[in-house]
Design goal:
heterodimer, A: Rossmann fold, Immunoglobulin-like, B: alpha+beta, Beta-Lactamase, 5-stranded antiparallel β-sheet, globular, ER-Golgi transport (chain B)
Amino acid sequence: MSPAQWDLPPELCCRPMAFVALTGLDVVYNAIHRAIWDAFCANRRADRVPISFKVLLGDHEYPKCRTKRTSYEWYIPKGILKTGWMNKHLNLVPALVVLFYELDWDDPQWKEKQSECATKVEIVRTSLQGRNTKVAVVLIQKKTPLPPGEDLVASERASALCGACDLSGKSLFVLPHTDHLVGYIIRLENAFYEHAQTYYYNEIRRVKSHKEFLNKTTHQVTRISAVNRNFYIAEFIYKDPHTFHVLSCRYYRTAYSLVHELRAHETNMLEIKTMAGFINYKICRLCFQHNTPLDAIAQFRKHIDLCKKKIGSAELAFEHTAWMSKQFQSFGDLFDEAIKLGLTAIQTQNPGFYYQQAAYYAQERKQQAGQLCSHEPGVVYPAPDPLETPSGALDFYGQRPWRQGHQSIDPPDSEKEKQGILALQVKERDVLHSELVIALLSNAVAQFKKYKCPRMKSHLMVQMGEEYYHAKDYTKALKLLDYVMCDYRTERWWSLLTSILCTALKCSYLMGQVKDYITYSMELMGRASILHEEQKSRIEKNLIKVLMNEVPQPEPDCDLTSVKTAQSLWSDRISLAGNNEFTIEVQDYVPFVQCKAKFLYPSFHIDEPVQLHVYVRADCPHPVRFSKLCVSLSNQEYNQYCLLEDTSKEKDILETSTQENMCLVPGKTRKYCFKFVAKTEDVGKKIEITSVGLMLGREMGRYVYLNWRGGWGDAASSHETLQASRSFKRRTRLPEQQLDWDTVTIQSSTMIISRVPKISVQLTHEPPALTNEMYCMIVTIQSEEDTVAKDIKLTAGLKPGQDASLTQSTQITVNGSEVCDDSHPALLPDISLGDLQPGQKIVKPLYIHCMSTGSRILLFHVAYSVSATVEGKDINCKCHKDETVTLETVVPFEVAMKFVSSKFEHLERVYVDIPFLLMMDILSASPWPIELVNSEVQLASSMTPIDQPQSQVEGVTLQTSECASECFLLKCPPVQNGTSTVASGHYFISWKRKSAFAETSVVRTIVILPHVMLENIPLYVHAELPSFGRVRESLPVRYHLENRTGLVQDVEIGVEPSDAFMFSGLKQPQGRNGDTSIEAA
Amino acid sequence: MAVCIAVIAKENYPLYIRSVPTQGELKFHYTVHTSLDVVEEKISGVGKALADQRELYLGLLYPTEDYKVYGYVTNSKVKFVIVVDSSNTSLRDNEIRSMFRKLHNSFTDVMCNPFYNPGDPIQSKAFDSIVSTMMVQAC
């Protein structure tokens, strides 16, 4: 009984096709025949008719035909379906035999050839002996035939040949061997196919006709025949591609229900199930082909529900599960095949489920085989072999070899029956069940992967791993389990993880894999494991043994022989050959030790020691000792200060008296403090905890390093931290020295910052600053250090990062005596101020030149170095202190200018040669008094002063919003054209802030004088008027008229008095300008 | 009546899981875990279109030979899974629905407990007894 016993026979799984035998072809030596044969066989695509061709000899012997029974009265069928029947009708009994014969119509030896052909036909007929198989003749001709009816010789000879061979005209074909061979062949095979169909149609009729003999369907025998009949019909119909779907399926269904109507008992149960399985397969297959997958699924479900309980003989229960497994598997195969042909499956209905169920039955089969086939050692395979049959094969599907054809309820020979069952059981014992299970599971895995079921996939992989474990392939088992473990870990299904870990631990024990053994033990002892205390305790003891280089106790429920091998493997490991140091990256696991490392503060000053706390906690049942605790920092130079090592070299790992510090008591949090002095180069840098390592075991022997990357956290920590942070729970006060684990927060990096400066920086100044002034700021630096502050450097100026235009308009210098220009920077770096003794102070004035108004931030940065002692170490600390100040800049004064006449009347324009006044008003806007040192007018060429211009405001001090004015008498020389705008020149004001606070320098401000309209006038009228007059007294008025042209002008003057005046003197004088002066009084 | 009842957190880890003690507990854990595949698929499929009036009851997740697995998702994405025996054909969809509704009510009570930290395993006696009423009584 090979595992293949349960496989469906190939002739069942293939698609039934009409079988046509070709004779008279010599495909080996005749090239033409070869070409014909190739044209039949090659390229049989779906569009060609379903025929299977075979070349046979002319006298080939076909299976003998039974003599037809005329009465079924005494007929007792020996079984349902003969094993040979399907093969017979597929491959042995042809529907049509075709005789190929080379003969042209005008062959000179026509007569002889005709009779030879007739003989050959006769031989074929004889060998078919009573079968209804049709015979046809194909004449291979060298000439292309004429159109039908034109070749009279041909038609005459054709009918003669038909007569000689006893053939109908439809069975004679001509195959001209010309260029269009394939075309002829396709036409030929279509004709063959029609013949074949006729044959199968007749066969169906013949089978159907048997019905008449079977009058009652209640009899078991007749039922069997009915099944048979329907199956046959369905099979024959199936061969026709046009009708097979519906009709064939209907007959199969009838056959199927008839199978279940058969009276089932222990002796024929297997036969019924086998038959039901066959027919079910056919139905499902047809449904899938017909694109009705739901029908297929429904049929299959019905099939399973009907057969599930038909176990048959209890002693051979494994046969039932094997059969069930096969049913699911073949349905899965059919489903998968249909998907490949375009069917779409969904997540909840895909072949994976059927493979999974098949695997489940295979597992059950294995279990049953284990129970039923565990014979005593003395039991051997019975002889003679009851499974041997004379022919080497069974006559009917699903029957017992030792009682073939037997149809009654009781077995004929109980002794034989026992032997047979024993033989089957012994065979079953040798079946490699695990392989079957694994193959099915891996099929299912592939399907579930396709249909987006990651968890189902993981579950099946676990099952595969477990099956490999049972099959003692521990390497593969471990590989699979290890692969899926992390899925369960990240999803936090601890119950499932624990179960997987237990199997994995067994595997690693049995293989003597030290690292895996340690890893799994650690996780099983930890908080993620749901094992009981005593189990954890056992594992811990084993782990300690392994770390002490001893052989661990075997895991429970392991195969005894494997345990023996494992023990010797572990004994070999004692020699410590090979690698004995293991590093476990904790973030991928949930080990029994937890760790949190933190810096005490987010930053430390360079002159204080950096403090680091490491909290360690164990969840295992017994105290555990470690031999080393080390912290790796981003700057590895500090690592040496963060190391706790077991210095004693004593052998006993459990010795705790002196080493209490390095012993972890379950459930208690231990704190280890480390301290170190940071290097001065690290000021401004970040120090990070890159990892924390905890060493278990001995450096001399075997040890394992638990490595926490970043100083804390394993695979479960982040969730736990989140839950703890959400928790309402009050932090319960624990006894002294004990900490609540959840309250320990993480601080995995710290900044090293410079020492706090002990100096004071003061700024003295009088804001706001005035535009363009050299604004004085006095920086006072006073040392409060205990030692000398060396190398004091002051950086002062505009704080970087402000508007770029400010940089352009701000300059700073230490020299206040001169006004800054563009060569001075906005920020003056590193002004060296020397050393400063304790208590001493330095005063440094700085001058800032602001060319634009607005506010700007100024920075005063004082840096120095001082030596300090930390933890007995002398270090040179650099300190610095920053002062910033926001400085407003305002304009000191505003200058208003205007042109007025000599009578202080406002002038829109000035006239050539007529004197006028230029008047300036200086309005102070400064909050501080301003002293005007000097002022000066620098005239443009278009204007000349009339007298010596001299400053009238020199030495004047202006308080806030006071105004100083001065004027200059000017006139304009003549210009060429009549009216034009002329420039006036510049006005210079020298001024300084009047301050008691610091010596200030004089600032010269330039004001551009406005342009003015200049006009030439021909006649200048000038009136002389007394400043006042008296009532009834004369008021003498004198008008001067001046002709400013080069020509004599006639003038007429009229005076119109107002109502307040009366006239005396000339009222309308006339004259000529230039020669006389006209005066009116 | 159910053979296994489970409450699964939003992040897909179990908050509560109870099964009849007669059969393998582990098997039920695996069944519940694998059913989350279908739950996830159903949530992601439905979530977009009808986020608001989404039906909480997901119906039959998938049938195995022996068990039927039903699912239910609360608005906060906490999942309830009920496993019933396939042979128990008397249970109708409506009864399953009402079981889920009862479970949801009891779960809401658990959440309302100020001493319960959401995300922690459920250890409520009241919840336990509600679940007990829905479970197949162990013989």
